[in-house]
Amino acid sequence: MTRYTAPLTEFRFLFHEVLGLERYGNLKSFAETTPELFDAVLGEAAKLCEEVLHPLNIPGDRQGCTLHEDGSVTTPEGFKDAYRAYVEGGWPALACDPEFGGQGMPVTLSLALNEIVSSANMAFGMYPGLTHGAYEALHQHGTDAQKQTYLPKLTSGEWTGTMNLTEPHCGTDLGLMRSKAVEQADGSYKISGQKIFISAGEHDLTENIIHLVLARIEGAPEGIKGISLFIVPKFLVGEDGTPGARNAVSCGALEEKMGIHGNATCVLNYDDATGYLIGEPHKGMRAMFTMMNEARLGVGLQGLAQSQIAYENAADYARERQQGRALSGPAAPDAPADPIIVHPDVRRMLMDQRAFNEGARAFYLWVGLQADILRGDDDAGTRQKADDFLALLTPVVKAYLTDRGFRHCVEAQQVYGGHGYIAEHGMEQFVRDARIAMIYEGANGIQALDLVGRKLPADGGRAIFAFFGEIDTLIASHADKDAMQEFCTPLKQARDRLEQATMWFLENGAKNPDHLAAGSTDYLHLVGLTALAWMWTQMADAAQQALANAEAASEAPAFYEAKLVTARYFMQRVLPDSAGHLAKLTSGADSMMALPTEAF
Ligand SMILES: Cc1cc2nc3c(=O)[nH]c(=O)nc-3n(C[C@H](O)[C@H](O)[C@H](O)COP(=O)(O)OP(=O)(O)OC[C@H]3O[C@@H](n4cnc5c(N)ncnc54)[C@H](O)[C@@H]3O)c2cc1C
Predict the structure, then answer these.
(1) Are 210 and 255 in contact (CB under 8 A)?
(2) 441 catalytic residue (yes or no)
(3) Which of 24, 174, 444, 548 sits in a 20 to 30 Å window from 212, CA-based?
(4) What contacts 364, CB < 8 A, 6 or more positions away?
(5) Atom of ligand 1 at shortest distance to CA of 445?
């Protein structure tokens, strides 16, 4: 009903001609992953996504997960075999530490894998996706013994992981958390409480599930500073490392929900379940943030991933569906009507999607590259800069890519007219699935607050000024190239608007914090737009260079020409929104906060 072709040519272009990954041989993960290997690995993953995961996307949505009387949960038909194939392919281990059985490949590559898995079947991709988040938290904060017990099994995919934050009365405000932990004589804890909305909380894919659970140790300080993180395995792990007795954690219900039906969203009840502290008492949020940072990039990709697959199908449909005539004269005079792709308004929707997908992919890969630099570069200054960029831009990847990704899924659905609204063509599923990515892993409004409240002012704004520096360097490097000015000029305008917004915040945010909060989403979108413009300028440059090189140009001139056309579209038809965001932001909070509560 729907089709998916992983955008491998796009990835190759970005890896080699835009990001120049060949230059990062100094990083351990890149030294062992040659550029050819990058392409080969992704090519293999694409086969699994296209041939195994994507065919299960619609059936998985229709069937959903099932909770049985004994509290067990079965995933949709075919998911178990697909998961086995995923594990046998070694995909869970891709970017994991070789010490625990991982392949030690770059984060950049694992993000690309995440994108294509998520396009093919978002609900399926969440089982290994959350596992990787649990792996990261344990890898960074676990004791040696904990790492030896859990990491090899999470790396191999024999076990999966979950993250348990949300409770019925608290999602964003985790300081209100009630789940409780009581220390035992042997140093373990008894965990009790209820967690809701837990993705992949119970399922039949693996022999064990490792829940990472936030709870408050008896007598801990109130609020966020009294929360600790615990490992709570579904089956307690014996001395020999195999699952033993069933722990006191059970699935009380599966949530009925709008999309991602193939992923089990569980109410989990902890009734004096045995748990083991990760890291220090009351420092659970720090460890959980490790997990959440990783997961936030993954969720950002989900927005783009749904937009990509929705676009591929919408473009096919627009070429086939015949309605009306082109205003400039019939394009298919022998047919009863022209294909709808001749209509400018249909083009607008397709070009919007395309310009976003390609720009957003370049952006997240660049951010992923910062994670690789942070992990592997010898130079402290270079690592510091990468860390700054990662901190600043992670909430932007999460929220900008999911806000826009959802919007573009709706546009792709619109291309189908009424046929997009009914289930037959599969377009409404993309819309339903994409919607959650704006909410979980910290709602997008909270990402915007994190950006302006924490990330922006950190170290006197060092990260945002470094970001301006990167853009200025790029613009300066093209100063004498006439052909680049149609890209550099709008990039400069957007960069200047972002600087004005930053300065406005500096002047007005301290006087009235509501000004900061009221403008936060506009600011986040302004950063997102500017980042994509920066990426599009680099892509346009790479395309111009390729076209000037007879060999590359003769291989794929249409590919590079299309890049330039799309870059132009982005600059002319998408980037001007940055002026609107600046105007809204600098109007401040007054009109937003003026109405009394009872007037709503
Ligand atoms: C399908 C699904 C899967 C999920 N998976 C998991 C999971 O695996 N693990 C897990 O722990 N949780 C999970 N969640 C929970 C999810 O992370 C939360 O729903 C989300 O963080 C929002 O919390 P909430 O629903 O309590 O909304 P609330 O916190 O009540 O927020 C409601 C609205 O108010 C806004 N808001 C709240 N506080 C502020 C503030 N201070 N300033 C400005 N705006 C504010 C929010 O942005 C939001 O728009 C999942 C949820 C769903 C639906």
Answers:
(1) no
(2) yes
(3) 444
(4) 111, 115, 297, 300, 301, 304, 397, 401
(5) 47
Binding site membership of 171 for ligand 1 (Cβ less than 6 Å):
yes
- Over residues 51-98, the pLDDT tens digits come to 999 999 999 999 999 999 999 999 999 999 999 999 999 999 998 999
CA distance 119 to 130: 16
Residues β-bridged to residue 277: 230
Q: Is the CB of 166 under 6 A from ligand 1?
A: yes
Six-digit token pair at 280?
């220090």
pLDDT digits (tens, 9 = 90+) for 442-465: 999 999 999 999 999 999 999 999
Nearest ligand 1 atom, CA 255: 1
Q: Note the pLDDT of residue 1.
A: 87
| Strand pairing category for 66-67 and 73-74 | antiparallel
Crossing angle for the helix pair 557-569 and 513-548, to the nearest 10 degrees: 150
pTM assigned to the model:
0.97
Q: Parse the chain into domains and list their residue ranges.
A: 288-455, 460-592
Give dist(CA 345, CA 326) in Å, integer: 11
Query: Using CA positions, which residue lies closest to atom 50 of ligand 1?
Result: 197
Does pLDDT of 122 surpass 70? yes
Taking the centre of ligand 1 as the mean of its atom positions, its distance from the CA of residue 438, in whole angstroms, is 10
Beta bridge partners of 161: 210
**What CATH code is assigned to 288-455?**
1.20.140.10
Question: How far is it, in rounded angstroms, from Cα 129 to Cα 519?
Answer: 32
- The finding on whether 445 has its CB within 6 A of some atom of ligand 1 is yes
pLDDT at position 291 over 80: no
Q: Which two tokens stand for residue 498?
A: 């972002």
